[in-house]
């Protein structure tokens, strides 16, 4: 479509990028992309490997990447780089600065504003485009966005605040694991795993652990054409995590799968992955939006197989 319509801008999700990345460069480089000027991304945190591939391969190292953060409920982009400004700085895999009129804050578990560099992302003041209610259920609207941090709009996302007022989205707050009393963001682990040259994408969830309280369960999708064995890749992944984050972030289980369960709009259905990790796959809940049920069947079967292997090793 870029070649045929001579598109100047494209705006895609990290999921779409990782799917292309998994298949290799040939699906992209065979088309003329000289018309492209800006590359946009939205939907979930964009990991560094996907960002670099987007810039190097799709954009031919000449197109700015505008990695944006917003929600349907916000009515428009709230955090974004400004590539058109003179001397503009773009930091890879980071939305960076709030848009004009958007006043951001970080809050703690009690909903109190904090000066720390990590916390739950909130918006302090009303802005044009903010949702006013949920049709037919205003109380749910209040409970979801205004109870956790009274006086603020609670986004439900975690963020890291850097010097200069730059913000990095770390993922959903309910995607933070409590491992041996330490809070670890799943996006942080995924970002490290995604940097492995044979991995196209990952999803990390927690599961009950009798000693740690919560264990780490990682689902990983391998790129096509890999030469290393799964065992070697698993060892390398754990070495990467230990080096970049620490031993506390090591997954107890890494399940390799051809793909991850997604909605028809492309979002990973982490709820299903959590259920499988907890051995609760007989009641996966509503799967009406699931794009590929066969993916779930494969993961469940593989999970059962892995659990049997682990139990046999303990005997």
From TrEMBL:
GO terms for cellular component: mitochondrion. Residues 1-130 form the AMP-dependent synthetase/ligase domain. This is acetate--CoA ligase. GO terms for molecular function: acetate-CoA ligase activity; ATP binding. It comes from the Eukaryota. The keyword Ligase applies. It holds the Pfam family AMP-binding_C. Residues 188-267 form the AMP-binding enzyme C-terminal domain. Its EC number is 6.2.1.1. One of its GO terms (biological process) is acetyl-CoA biosynthetic process. SUPFAM superfamilies: Acetyl-CoA synthetase-like. Keywords: ATP-binding, Ligase, Nucleotide-binding. InterPro entries: AMP-bd_C, AMP-bd_C_sf, AMP-dep_synth/lig_dom, ANL_N_sf.
């Amino acid at each position: 479509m870029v070649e045929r319509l001579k598109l100047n801008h494209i705006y895609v999700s990290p999921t779409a990028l990782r799917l292309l990345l998994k298949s290799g460069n040939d699906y992209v480089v065979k088309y003329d992309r000289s018309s492209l000027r800006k590359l946009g991304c939205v939907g979930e945190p964009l990991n560094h490997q996907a960002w670099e591939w987007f810039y190097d391969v799709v954009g031919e190292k000449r197109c700015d990447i505008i990695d944006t953060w917003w929600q349907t409920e916000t009515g428009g982009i709230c955090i974004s780089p400004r590539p058109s400004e003179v001397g503009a700085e773009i930091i890879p895999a980071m939305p960076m600065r709030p848009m004009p009129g958007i006043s951001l804050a970080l809050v703690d578990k009690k909903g109190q504003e904090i000066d720390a560099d990590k916390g739950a992302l909130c918006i302090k003041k009303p802005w044009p485009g903010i949702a006013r209610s949920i049709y037919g259920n205003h109380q749910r609207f209040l409970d979801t966005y205004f109870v956790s941090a009274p006086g603020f709009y609670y986004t439900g996302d975690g963020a890291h605040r850097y010097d200069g007022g730059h913000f990095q989205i770390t993922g959903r707050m309910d995607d933070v694991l409590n491992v041996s009393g330490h809070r670890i963001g799943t996006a942080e682990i995924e970002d490290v795993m995604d940097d492995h040259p044979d991995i196209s994408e990952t999803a990390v969830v927690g599961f009950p652990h009798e000693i740690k309280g919560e264990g780490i369960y990682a689902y990983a999708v391998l790129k096509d054409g890999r030469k290393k064995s799964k065992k070697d890749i698993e060892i390398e992944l754990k070495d990467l995590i230990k080096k970049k984050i620490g031993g506390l972030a090591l997954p107890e289980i890494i399940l390799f799968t051809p793909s991850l369960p997604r909605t028809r709009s492309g979002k990973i259905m982490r709820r299903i992955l959590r259920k499988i990790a907890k051995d609760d796959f007989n009641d996966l809940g509503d799967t009406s939006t699931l794009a590929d049920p066969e993916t779930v069947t494969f993961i469940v079967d593989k999970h059962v197989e892995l659990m049997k292997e682990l139990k046999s090793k303990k005997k």
